[in-house]
TrEMBL record:
One of its GO terms (biological process) is dTTP biosynthetic process. The keyword Signal does not apply. Belongs to the thymidylate kinase family. Gene3D superfamilies: P-loop containing nucleotide triphosphate hydrolases (3.40.50.300). NCBIfam families: DTMP_kinase. Keywords: ATP-binding, Kinase, Nucleotide biosynthesis, Nucleotide-binding, Transferase. This is Thymidylate kinase. It holds the Pfam family Thymidylate_kin. The keyword Glycoprotein does not apply. Phosphorylation of dTMP to form dTDP in both de novo and salvage pathways of dTTP synthesis. HAMAP family: Thymidylate_kinase. It comes from Roseibium suaedae.
Length: 232
């Protein structure tokens, strides 16, 4: 099922970023976007839940906790509904235009977060198949950090930006975050061709370097030097 897409004429490249809270996903996605654009590749950054107008409305319900009463299975359905809208309106059109799509969380986050919450993996597979409509990542960058480090980063970011308290999923117990970390690593182990696991405990520049190497290795000759030559 991996790297399978609707149609044969889809020229773009689809990279997802996964990992726990505060792993560095958003930071690193921005850096990879500049890197690819400097090499002449049109690149969009998007995120889940959300990434399209319809899905952003569902994001609000999910992250505020308003959907919590639906239970993990209902939440999983909302994630799938948001993902379907995001694929249809943002991801697939960009891939069809030949662009690189960098997505902050995707279906693996549902497998991990709703799987950890007790939803049957077979049920999650069905929802995923329906939601992604054949659009699957070419490469998934898993930024791995122990949750106590990630949560500490998120807390200091919140203090700096006055962005309010933790969201619905950040607020879970440390044990829950630890189980999610293990599930992400297990997923990576069971899909070794698609995943690159990056040590997110390193300083941000080192993480950036490791991600570049993983992307260059995965897409071999496709990156090139572009008009501007390599940065830093
Ligand atoms: N390698 C790193 N070392 C130290 N701090 C980092 C590193 N990477 C990112 N940070 C800082 O940690 C905080 C969290 O980073 P970022 O927002 O990129 O993580 P995230 O994985 O997107 O988090 P979230 O799951 O909350 O969206 C930010 O304040 C960021 O500047
Ligand atoms: Mg983020």
């Amino acid at each position: 099922m991996e790297q399978h897409r609707i149609g044969q004429d889809v020229q773009g490249r689809f990279i997802t970023f996964e990992g726990g809270e505060g792993a560095g996903k958003t930071t690193q996605i921005k850096r990879l976007k500049s890197y690819l654009e400097d090499r002449g590749h049109k690149t969009i950054v998007t995120r889940e839940p959300g990434g399209s107008p319809g899905a952003e409305k569902i994001r609000e319900m999910l992250l505020s906790g308003a959907a919590r009463d639906l239970g993990p299975r209902g939440e999983a359905m909302l994630f799938a509904a948001a993902r379907a809208d995001h694929v249809d309106h943002t991801i697939l059109p960009a891939l069809e235009r030949g662009e690189w799509v960098l997505c902050d969380r995707f279906a693996d986050s549902t497998r991990v977060y709703q799987g950890e919450a007790g939803v049957d993996p077979a049920y999650l597979d069905l929802l995923e198949t329906a939601a992604v409509a054949g659009v699957r990542p070419d490469l998934t960058i898993l930024i791995d950090v122990p949750p106590e480090i990630g949560l500490q980063r998120v807390n200091s970011r919140a203090a700096e930006t006055a962005s309010g308290g933790p969201d619905r999923f950040e607020a879970d117990d440390l044990k829950v975050h630890e189980r999610r970390r293990v599930l992400f690593l297990e997923l990576a182990r069971s899909h070794p061709q698609r995943f690159a696991v990056i040590d997110g405990r390193q300083d941000a520049d080192k993480v950036t370097g490791d991600i570049r190497k993983a992307v260059e290795a995965h897409f071999a000759l496709e990156i090139g030097e572009g008009a501007h030559g390599p940065r830093d």
